[in-house]
Structure formats: C-alpha cells, structure tokens
Design a protein that fits this description.
alpha/beta; Aspartate Aminotransferase, domain 2; 7-stranded mixed beta sheet; 4-stranded antiparallel beta sheet; about 15% strand; globular
Length: about 400
C-alpha cells in the first residue's frame, strides 16, 4: 500500500487555495466536507451548458441525461452494486422518511423493528414514528460507559417477528466502527432487512455493500466531497418489493419510486465528480487498470491508513488529560477520526469559540445525536466538543489542533 500523497490530495480541493480560508484548519468535516474540484466543475458545467429538462432528444438535454446516468453507474461501481440500486434524494433524513413509508405496507400490526440509541436521529426518528402506526419498536442500547453496541445484546432483541434492523456503520459521536457483516447476519437469520446509516463512515472510504451484507445503505454526499444530496443503495429485490412513493406511473421505475418529488438533476450530475476524484486518487497512487470495486477498496484503504496515522497522536494526547472525557474508543484502528469530548471544566461552545480564534474550525452541541449523548450521561445542553477530520487533513493541522486544545483547555 503506497503512502497517501497529501500534496496531490489537497491540490484536488479548491478550498485549500481559497484566500478566505487561509491559515484555518478545518475540523468540522463530520458536518460536511470540502467539495473536490471535480464536483464543483461538474456542477458549474451543468448549470452553464445543460440546465434543461434531461433525457429529451435535443443535444443539451441528452447530454444532461448522460451526465446523470454516469453518476449512477460510476458511484454504483465504487460501492459494488448495480446502477439501478442507487437512489438520490435531498438528504439522508428525508430518504429515511420515504423508506419508512415504503416499508410500512409490507408489515402487519404487531411486527417488530429494532433501532439503536447510538444513531444520528436521521436513522432513528422515522422508524420510531412507526410505533404510532402499529409497529413495535425495540431499542438496542449502547453501553453507557463506552457508547458502543454489543452484538451479543442483539440476540435478546431479535425474534421471529423482527422485520427490520436499523443501525449506524459508525456513530457521529462515538465513532466506533460497528461490525456490520456480523450484525447483518444476525438480522438476516430471522428474515429481517438491514438498514445501515453510513453517513459518518462513507467520507472515510465508500464501502463494498456486497461485502457488508446491507440491504440498504445510506450516506450524505456533501460529507463525501460532493453536492448536497443523500445517496441510498437499496438492493434490487427489496427495491422492487417496497411500496411506490412516487407518481403511480413510476411503480416500476427503480430510480423514481423512492423519490416523491423530482430529482435535483444538476446535483445528481455533479455527484459523478466524486467518482472522478476517486479515479484521480487511484491513478496517482496505483499503476494499473483495476475494476471499480478494486479501485474503491484501494482508495478506502489509502484514506483509512492516513486517517489512523493522524488520529493516533490526537488520541494519545487526549488520554493524558483529566479534564476531558473521550466519547468512544481510544484505539484509532477501530474508530473513525470523529472525536467527541465531554469537557469537564468548561463549556464546549466556549471552547469551540476560543479554538476559532486560533484558526481551528470545530463545533459543539448534540449533533442530532441526542439519544447517545443522554445514554452516556453527557448533558445535552451544552453537549460535547467535536473535532473531526478526513484524509485531506495534514499532520501539521493535527499538531496545530493539539497545541490549540492545550492552550484552550488549560
């Protein structure tokens, strides 16, 4: 495995040459990453050249449709699924609401679903509301000390009446990377479907959905260097079985049946730029013509290796302090580089404000993960301080963060 070329990586992101951002280190990537140049170029080009209704015969329209088709096909390749299993929507929260409505007609009153209290509310709220519509909702709870989910606890919840299990690939607070395949196999053993919220994981490398065993995988492209769109993979057999949520004549249109409103043509076209970026990363680091799933795995591993190397010194530093509580594991190998802290002697919002004056962009609050914060005994108001990064972050920026934390917390 080659070493990630940080200079090359940062050259792909216009934000790093933007004068207004000079001297600032971005540590709120879990809320949304910088967009790569390929996405910005595609979005600009679409609005400039093809801002027409797509898929008609005239040239601009045909070109617009082709750009959208390419986004479906190329992102599907990187996630090792078929293009007609990829769906776009305005956000992961809204996509999940649509899914909940699409599933409900398949179930009987008294059927059961399992959710967790580790989730961002986007992958919990919509499913929990089905309790008002005859479905029994069971909660898989985290360990209050570690914030982690124990797969053994799931054995007590799964029954012959379980129809669906929804859980995160990793939490945007705890950041522990859950063993998705092991968990999915437990649910599948009783015929339940598995919905995985990958919003906090996908920025660190798009996963191989086939290997994970997920029936549905959700992520937010604006956190994966792309436009503000939610992406959901729904495996074909399940997609065909779900109740149509679009116009009646879209019943058999796989791209449309889970999109109640018309899609955002320009942003779907721009999403293809994420694949362009991954192609560029692969071509720069590897000298072969591997297929898309292989390229995806290699890019994923490049990103994870870089992030673990940067996360280790930060976790080492935090272990040495007695005025913060790290939420989640202290081992970089089993967590994403999203680091939430309960600050024991100061308000996290004040710390975030102080960090901003030192050129560190970070946030504080509950980050829409109220349930896990409460479960771990952290006051929701004021919540936690969170610093999060991705593969384009540098060691110099991590060192700057550590120095700023040292000054601010002391």
């Amino acid at each position: 495995m080659p070493t990630l070329d940080s200079d090359f990586i940062r050259s792909q992101f216009p934000a790093f040459s933007e004068a207004s951002l000079a001297g600032q280190a971005f540590f709120e990537n879990a809320g949304g990453s910088y967009a790569c140049g390929q996405v910005i170029d595609r979005l600009t080009r679409y609005y400039r050249e093809t801002k027409v209704q797509p898929y008609w015969a005239f040239e601009a329209s045909a070109k617009a449709g082709a750009q959208m088709d390419a986004a479906y096909e190329r992102l599907a390749g990187y996630m090792n699924v078929a293009a007609d299993e990829v769906n776009f929507g305005p956000s992961t929260t809204q996509n999940t609401y649509v899914l909940a409505n699409a599933f409900r007609p398949l179930w009987q009153d008294g059927d059961e679903i399992i959710v967790t209290n580790q989730d961002h509310e986007a992958n919990g709220g919509a499913w929990r509301r089905l309790a008002d519509r005859g479905i029994v909702v069971r909660e898989w709870q985290v360990n209050p000390d570690t914030g982690q989910l124990d797969p053994a606890d799931l054995d007590k919840l799964v029954t012959s009446k379980t129809k669906l299990l929804a859980f995160p690939h990793c939490s945007n607070i705890v950041a522990h990377i859950n063993p998705v395949r092991e968990i999915a196999d437990k649910a599948h053993s009783v015929g339940a479907h598995v919905v995985v919220d990958g919003v906090s994981y996908a920025p660190h490398g798009l996963p191989d959905i086939e290997a994970l065993g997920a029936d549905i995988y959700l992520c937010s492209l604006y956190k994966v260097y792309g436009p503000h769109q939610g992406l959901m993979v729904v495996r074909r057999a399940l997609l065909d079985a779900l109740a149509n949520q679009s116009h009646y004549f879209n019943e058999t249109n796989r791209r449309a049946k889970l999109t109640p409103a018309g899609p955002d043509h320009a942003q779907i076209a721009a999403a293809g730029g994420v694949a362009d970026y991954f192609d560029a990363v692969h071509a720069h680091h590897f000298n072969d013509d591997a297929d898309a799933p292989t390229r995806g795995q290699r890019v994923h591993d490049l990103f994870r290796s870089q992030e673990q190397a940067l996360l280790t010194p930060l976790l080492d530093y935090l272990r040495g302090r007695n005025d913060v509580r790290l939420l989640g594991p202290s081992d970089a190998a089993v967590r994403a580089p999203t680091v939430a802290l309960q600050t024991l002697n100061a308000n996290p919002h004040e710390i975030a404000e102080s960090l901003a004056h030192k050129g560190i962009m970070a946030g504080a609050g509950d980050f829409y993960s109220v349930r896990v914060i409460e479960a771990m005994g952290v006051p929701v108001d004021p919540g936690a301080l969170r610093v999060s990064f991705v593969h384009y972050t540098t060691r110099e920026e991590v060192d700057k963060l550590i120095a700023a934390l040292d000054e601010t917390l002391s």
